[in-house]
Amino acid sequence: MPKKSAYDDVTAFAPATVANVAIGFDILGHTVEAVGDRVRIKRIEAPEVRICSITGVAGELPVEPERNTAGRAVQAMHQALKLPYGFELSIDKGIPLSSGMGGSAASAVAAVVAANALLAEPLTRLQLLQYAIQGEIIASGAVHVDNIAPSLFGGLVLTVGIDHPRVKQIPVPKSVRCVLVHPHMQLATREARAILKAHVTRSDFVWQTANLAGFISGCYSNDLDMIRESFDDVVIEPQRQSMIPGFGEVKQAAMAAGALGCSISGAGPTIFAWAETHRTVAVQAGMVAAFRAHGLDSDAWISVIENDGARIVNP
Ligand code: HSE
Fold it and tell me: Rounded to whole angstroms, what are the CA distances from 75 to 100, 127, 184, 190, 201?
């Protein structure tokens, strides 16, 4: 029988994420330190994966492991490693459902990180990424890693490839923070993906490519003007914005308060902005007021972007 780790019971935290970051649809994402999901896993004798509780801002989430993002991710790991023991999961949701803040990804990531700590020979983060992806597929019906990879690795993360992903953490200028505003409504990722056109025009392709390249080069060279100029999604945002009441006004309020850029967080309805630290309070106030004018209350956070990603919090 394989050796076990020193622990029988661990809890991991995985942060919320802003996927796409305006110009990197399905390939770019960043963490938000202020909020996240926790998964506690106990080792059990029966060689199976079970979910014993789901708490927090859970809503209606399936407790069958094969239908739950955290359960499915750990099941994929459990099956691949052919473990002779099992795992029992308790999921504590801090990220609102269908909010565009990477909740399904964070649960899957926290689960594989916790399960990993119970292995005698822990896997690398890149190996864990493959199992967490199996969980994310259940939630959105598509393979995309722009929530999973940043939640696992931390910070602003570019992922190239799916079967053999290459993950690159990109430096973020030290003066920049993320303002995140979550209106009290839900938008299913499947729905927000289903409305997208299958083709882009050549001119949009050129603009989006230029903006992605400009944004990343601006991050590496600490060039806030370049980041501001490039912070413009000409492909996805125009197609999705009508699904979010007040989107135009919220964005306008953020930009009027001095944001570097503002767009939809993941598939929405949460909207995020990047801003220099001294402007964040005004940006947040403007965005919240604009949602309020459209009859929507919201929760809002101001967060650093770079962090360590998912981690064990107990023991
Ligand atoms: N890149 C994905 C999308 C993220 O925008 O559909 C979903 O969380």
Answer: 25, 14, 32, 23, 41
Cα(312) to centroid(ligand 1), Å = 26
* Residues having CB within 6 Å of any atom of ligand 1: 19-20, 25-26, 140, 144, 146-147, 189, 192-193, 266-267
Q: Whose CA is nearest to atom 6 of ligand 1?
A: 267
Which two structure tokens, joined as six digits, stand for 226?
């370049």
Single out the residue of 212, 129, 211, 117 nearest to residue 166, CA to CA: 129
Q: Summarize the confidence of residues 4-14 as an average pLDDT.
A: 87
Copy the structure tokens of residue 17.
């994420």
Mean pLDDT, to the nearest integer, of 284-303? 97
Complete domains list, the chain, with CATH: 9-169 (3.30.230.10), 176-303 (3.30.70.890)
Residue 180: pLDDT band (50, 70, 90) is very high
According to DSSP, the residues that pair with 272 across neighbouring strands are: 180, 263
Angstrom distances, CA of residue 163 to CA of 2, 123, 160, 166, 285: 28, 17, 10, 10, 42
Q: Ligand 1: which of 193, 197, 241, 263 to mutate, most ligand atoms within 8 Å of CB?
A: 193
Q: What is the pTM of this model?
A: 0.95
Which residues, 6+ apart, have CB-to-CB distance to 278 below 8 Å? none
